[in-house]
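>> Question from a student workshop board

For tomorrow's exercise we were told to take the sequence and the ligand below, predict the bound structure, and bring the output to class. My setup keeps failing. Could a helper post the expected result so I can at least see what it should look like? The ligand is adenosine-5'-diphosphate.
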Amino acid sequence: MGNQRGDLLLKELNISTFGDLLEHYPLRHINRTQINTIRSLNLSMEYAQVSGVLLSMDIVGSGRAKRLVAMLRDQSGLLELVWFQGIQWVQKALKPGVQYLCFGKVGFFNGKPQMAHPDMEMVIPGKTSVKNYLEPIYPSTEKLKARGITSKLISSWVMLILQKLQHPDFPENLPDVILQKYKLFPRLDAIRCIHFPVNEQQFHQAVRRLKFEELFWAQLRIRLVRITRKKNAKGWVFDKVGEAFNTFYEKHLPFSLTNAQKRVIREIRNDTASGIQMNRLLQGDVGSGKTIVALLCMLIAADNGFQSVMMAPTEVLAQQHFQTLRALLKDMDVEVRLLTGSTPARERKEILAGCAEGTITLLVGTHAVIEDKVQFHNLGFAVVDEQHKFGVAQRARLWGKNTMPPHVLIMTATPIPRTLALTAYGDLDYSVMDELPPGRLEIKTMVRNESARPSVMQFVRSELDAGRQAYFIYPLIEESSKLEYENLMKGYEEVKAFFPEPAYWVSMVHGKQTAAEKETNMQRFVSGDTQIMVGTTVIEVGVNVPNATVMVIESAEKFGLSQLHQLRGRVGRGAEASYCILLTGNKLSNDARERLQIMVQTNDGFKIAEKDLELRGPGEIDGTRQSGLLQFKLANLLEDKRMVEAVSEEVDTILDADPNLALPEHLRVQQFLKIQRGKTAWSKIA
Ligand code: ADP
Ligand code: MG
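>> Workshop helper replied:
Here is what the output should look like for this input. Compare the format with yours to find the bug.
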């Protein structure tokens, strides 16, 4: 095609090899396999192809209304053809009296059939025949079209390559067992049929096969990353459950564990006894009870002579965890301490010494706990709360804390749809707690317009007067957004006007406060000193005030679904019925309306996450690492959910039986991996 066009193709569509071109899949196809009679044309057929003799050609109208009109006749009737552009060129190219194949969009004008700008092909008897495949239409760009690289030209290149292609050039890369089980097209057939299928069914079969392949390779690779790491990552062995765990479990556990909690503890226990370092992601909906799971695991670590750290994303949350753990462990001989950025110097010194000597068994805190200055006597277990984005670099800081890295448990309430978990997070082991402790009441959620504010306030007052507490949440304050800050302040004044002191007291927490200010305000609310908390999403994660029963979210349409779900999770934590009121402005987009309706319909974090994925796409979902890697050409993590899961099972089966891909039936898989190595950045995500 020449260097210039080659360069352009690379720049515009990132195509540089035959393989790339073959993977430049058509957007759609047009069907020119049939000839319609003119009489049979109707509006239900979007495109049609007729064969007839060109009769007259006339230029009619003038100025902007100027057009070329021609008539085409077959045995059944007359078809009007119209051109508004390129009139001279068309007039020169077409010859009256000659037979043409004519393809285009069918329209009707004054009850007569018409085609504007049809595709015309002169019929040469004996040579021209109707196409026996669907014609591909390729995505292109303006720049390419300007250089004459049209869909037609691309199609002819692809056709040429496919004609020359033999099986060894485009080797099968899926095992035969899978091809048979799922009745998948062989690879070369699939690539042929996605470009030039004879009918729609064949096209769908081709797409199905190629999607399967895409998902297969994505999942196989990420799972290989995990296997490799496991092979190389020795871990501390926690081989016993001892006194600390047993005493706590038998004497101090304030409730019985849910089945989900028990299952997850068993999973972690297996991991930590295996001699391989654990990297486990624990997803549990808000309120599912992740903290106690973490504590029990840290007690197992203690029983084996190891220290643990528990890290929270904010000072407020770290503080709360500390208090929770200290209360739970008050009758036990386990030293828990809190270390954050605002720990006074003297106390800090004491804590650092305690960690180094090993007298401190559990260290709770913010990122302060992984600073280099913090050295441990024998760190064996690390819990990272509410940060599924806790990156590799951060994890790596834990590595140096002992002669071998500690086991790592990452906890998050952000539901990760299973399809994402299998693909994007396939390098971590994954546990789900899909069960809430018994006795939780459903949170009633409603959407209210701005104008209903007085009655909403009335309602909040009745809850407060019954001894409960309430949250008012305003959209996030960005450092730069003066307007949002003003809104928050206005809201604060408004709330105070509705709920005047001294009958009511109001706390406020936002991102512009110092850690100490946040802390004081939060603590006053937690202890019940204040009944109302006005804040931004800084209170989003983890905070636990069971007496709070009302969550009012201002301008709710400005929040994402997952965020709304997180916020709503701050209520419904006690025995009382709880409410979430979504206040909205007057002008709501359909999209926003739909989102808010989902909140009303379900309390299920997984359903909400799937909807979120659907509305926003995987590239944007909160916490998707390396989202670029999730840009499949054909597969769609939502629509192809069932296939993602089927593929996942197949990949597991293969790797369980043959982790090195050394069996003869996996030879082609291994070879394909070799060919592809270096082409993608897969190794980097480890
Ligand atoms: P999250 O998973 O959102 O971090 P928490 O660990 O904060 O949830 O637990 C939420 C609340 O549920 C806490 O008050 C906790 O004591 C309570 N809880 C946890 N597990 C159980 C259980 N098995 N039965 C009853 N209450 C539980
Ligand atoms: Mg939590």
